[in-house]
UniProtKB/TrEMBL annotation:
GO biological processes: cellulose catabolic process
Protein name per Swiss-Prot or TrEMBL: Glucanase
Pfam families registered for this protein in UniProt: Glyco_hydro_7
Secretion signal, residue range per the UniProt entry: none
InterPro entries in the record: ConA-like_dom_sf (IPR013320), Glyco_hydro_7 (IPR001722), Glyco_hydro_7_sf (IPR037019)
Length: 205
């Protein structure tokens, strides 16, 4: 999970350099408009390396039900697989709150413990995140074809040259995230979303 709030919570479209206010080519350079990095909750990155993946606690070789709960003070997830409810694990890393999700405390712990940029707080933090969630939204599902960072931020070491706490976000090799590789090496890959539901907490499963 990841939250990426902006100073302006209204709907808007950015293009080219406008998407990154820290880009020196941007006429608004120096004015941080959005948290491009985001506040993420990644069990692998937080020390729970056996939680999600092939043959792991949440086995990605099988069908999974994902339930995400957006509450006032946190965003959490649990999973259902083979009829069993599986809670997301709490961080297995010092310096983080004893809670398994995105919260104000979790987001505040990322910069000092993992060296992440402090953009989340600079654009308004969890309060801005909540303000955006109170507005009408559209659910969008996609398969990311990431030419910018090859999806390394999701399940590999990122940035590629980094080491130390928080660098490992997943087990994937750094040279295997290129967007063209699936078409060549696993051209029969597929994913299906079904039975998508939304509603008050506790009503969808």
């Amino acid at each position: 999970m990841i939250a990426k709030p902006c100073v302006d919570v209204d709907y808007e479209v950015c293009s080219h350099g406008d998407c990154n206010a820290l880009d020196p080519r941007n006429p608004q350079h120096g004015q941080l408009l959005c948290d491009r990095t985001g506040c993420d909750y990644n069990p692998y990155r937080l020390g729970n390396t056996t939680f999600y993946g092939k043959g792991k606690t949440v086995n990605t070789d099988k069908k999974i039900t994902v339930v995400t709960r957006f509450e006032e003070d946190e965003v959490t997830q649990f999973f259902i697989q083979d009829g069993k409810r599986i809670e997301a694990p709490k961080p297995n890393h010092p310096g983080f709150p004893d809670e398994s999700g995105i919260s104000a405390g979790h987001c505040a712990a990322l910069p000092p413990n993992f060296g992440d940029p402090e953009h989340f707080g600079q654009v308004g933090g969890y309060a801005r995140h909540n303000e955006a969630l109170r507005r009408p939204m559209v659910l969008a599902l996609s398969i990311s074809k990431d030419h910018w960072a090859n999806n390394l931020w999701l399940d590999s070491v990122y940035p590629p040259q980094r080491d130390g706490p928080g660098a490992e976000r997943g087990p994937c090799p750094a040279n295997q995230g290129g967007p063209g590789l699936p078409w060549v090496e696993v051209d029969d890959s597929r994913v299906a979303w079904s039975n998508i539901r939304f509603g008050p907490i506790g009503t969808t499963v």
